Amino acid sequence: MQLDQYISDLLYRYECVILPGFGAFLTQYQSAIVHESTQAFYPPKKKLSFNAQLIDTDGLLANYIAKKDMIPHEEANIKIASYVRFLYDGLHKGSILEIKNIGTFRLEEENSLQFEPSYRLNYLTSSFGLSSYTSPQITREVYKEEVQKLEEKAPIAFTPERRTSNGWMKYAAIAVIGLGLTGAGSFNYLKNVEAHNYAAKEEANIQLEEKIQQATFAFENPLPAITLDIMQPKGNYHVVAGAFRVKENAEKRTLQLKEKGYTKARLVGVNKYGLFQVVYGSYVNSQEALSILRQVRKEDNKTAWLDVRSL
Q1: Is residue 144 in some structural domain?
Q2: Sheet order of strands, 33-34 included
Q3: Would the pTM of this model clear 0.70, i.e. be above it?
């Protein structure tokens, strides 16, 4: 279906794309890999995963569909809901469903949804055009064996020359003395060059520091500071109501919960996927948090979950 392509398009630009009512597709950067045994090289990529807990709409997919198909936002939401029903119908029939270029889904025991990512596309735009390849292993033993064979065919022998006279000893001694004098002169010359280079380097460093100290930077139109007024919850056990890409939607959800009587409801900030997370409340005691979670699932939200972490 066309929604497959729309989700795939968004994964190039965003790390989290939510299919409302079904789950979220997440991407995470993975460095280049060289397989030790096969010598295969794999370029950097975005590793694809799926989270069935993130089902609340953030408006991203609906806005993209409305823009692409030039339809109202409400009609885009109807398309998404129809697509989700199509996926669930196939899964409950025992089919293995494929979302093109993203992955396959299947239902296992106790309606556990399993996701297998596709490796056809690399969603990391900086790796565009790079593909995996296998490099032959370098074997240096081959050259060693060839050298040994050449030595066997043409051995090199050193034979002492006949000593006809010891006159060559005199010339050898003169040459050694000359080389010693030349070496001493060269050593002194190199020391002078090294000292000159060091002095020039120090002078350049001093000039550079003066330039840096004199430099000033002025911004005529500085950007306004962004502040987030977020209340810090107490306790590490959080009963989550939902996660939203748009902060206004998260604030609206918080007000709805407070109107329903959940006085501890609040916006706790941005999670690792870049979404604004709203909770019914945060608790120090795990048993109290589980009790509230069961009550919430029974009375208000069947998809609420427990997030255990320090904020």
Answers
A1: no
A2: 33-34, 40-42, 133-134
A3: no
